[in-house]
Amino acid sequence: MNGKNTVLFREEQRFNQWWLWLLILVPTCMMWYGAIQQLIFHKPFGTNPTSDTGVSILLVLFGILLPIFMNSLKLITEVRQDGLYVRFYPFHLSFRHYPYESINSYKVREYSPLKEYGGWGIRYGWKGKAYNVSGNRGVQLELKNGNYLLIGSQRPEELISQMQNAIKNNQ
What's the mean pLDDT when you consider all of the chain? Predict the structure, then answer.
């Protein structure tokens, strides 16, 4: 393997907040219940039921695809010899590469996902761009182009330590 592509640090994070999964699974279970009632027992759910075709489409969208999609979401952060790599799957088809030469400074910091960035995911706030899925800690990058990037991490000290090692080895 090429030395530049050697992974020194890798962190994979998923949305695992109980309240988020409750928000997903309650409607999913209701969708399944309604679909079973209407399609199998021929007891339409509610006073103004949709057609069997409509129920089938809703079941596929909200009863199957939504939970699969939410389970597939993940933030992958890698430190390699030639820079920091970030991928928010499935939105990024490949890693976003941030060469060390493009980074002015970096630090571990606590943040408020809701107040500073409006939530979790790929977010844009008044403090720049953020990639985060859980928690309130991460690594804040100041890029040489003047932009700021926050990468949420459950292990921000280790991430910074490996970045420092990679930068030192590149000098």
Answer: 93
